[in-house]
Design a protein that fits this description.
With 76 residues, the chain is an all-alpha fold. It has three helices and no strands.
Length: 76
């Protein structure tokens, strides 16, 4: 069993989403929201950041030049 449980890409997406949620919760606390509201802001930011980071971070082993050529882009 040499395979890892989670890929590096999945771990990075989840880590960035958690950091975005922590930042949103901290900003809500500093803005004067209560703790319950701040936790809800953080959870909402985490949940909405996962699809964003999933789209932004390229899948493992993707050849960018081949993808651009397939979409009609000129790679030189």
């Amino acid at each position: 069993m040499d395979r890892s449980l989670v890929s590096v890409r999945a771990a990075l997406v989840l880590l960035l989403a958690i950091l975005a949620g922590l930042a949103a919760g901290l900003l809500a606390v500093l803005a004067g929201q209560g703790w319950a509201g701040s936790v809800l802001y953080g959870l909402a930011a985490t949940g909405s950041a996962v699809p964003v980071f999933n789209q932004v971070i390229a899948p493992d082993g993707v050849d960018v030049h081949r993808r651009l050529r397939g979409k009609g882009g000129d790679c030189g």
